[in-house]
Write a structure and sequence with these properties.
Blueprint (H helix, E strand, L loop, with lengths): L4 E2 L7 E3 L5 E2 L29 E2 L6 E2 L5 E3 L2 E3 L8 E2 L2 E7 L2 H13 L5 E5 L14 E6 L4 H10 L15
Antiparallel strand pairs: 1-2, 2-3, 4-5, 6-7, 8-9, 9-11, 10-11
The chain binds zinc ion (3 copies).
The site of one zinc ion has 8 residues, from loops.
Amino acid sequence: MNDFATSPAGGDVLRCRRCKTAVGEVEDFCPHCGNLFHENVHCTAHPDRLARGVCVICAMALCNRCAKRKNGVWLCVDHRHYEIYQSLVRVFGTRDAVQAQYAASCIEQAGGHPFVYSRMPTMSSEGEAGIVGEHKVLVPPGEVMAVEEVLRELELLSGESPGAAPGT
Ligand SMILES: [Zn+2]
Ligand SMILES: [Zn+2]
Ligand SMILES: [Zn+2]
């Protein structure tokens, strides 16, 4: 038993202390936020430094210097630009609702768990640009790398840098 995951008295469910998500007993880190459940894990890039968290996308151990926390989720430098919504990662975005549904159904067929979130555009008021509406395809962090392979095969990611936020 360690300090990083707690199990409520009498219960058999372990929960991540940081994000309170139920986690399996065999997990080394929380798949939702990257919180490490073990001490004495060393940073992948800096073996002399202790890791503070794990990138939820590539599972690389990160020290204070490497870790980028975003919306309470640990990310490595390579994956820090991904958009995170409620512990899900945006892998694809389009203005075309049909295309978003198509991407989601292909991900599902490949064994993933996609969630389509549609952000409605806001009206632009005088002198101000409105927010562009977008249908975002979100997946759990651990599926991002496999799902991007699927999207690349469908050629849905061409012309867009993977995971890049629109307008950045
Ligand atoms: Zn967590
Ligand atoms: Zn990473
Ligand atoms: Zn490091």
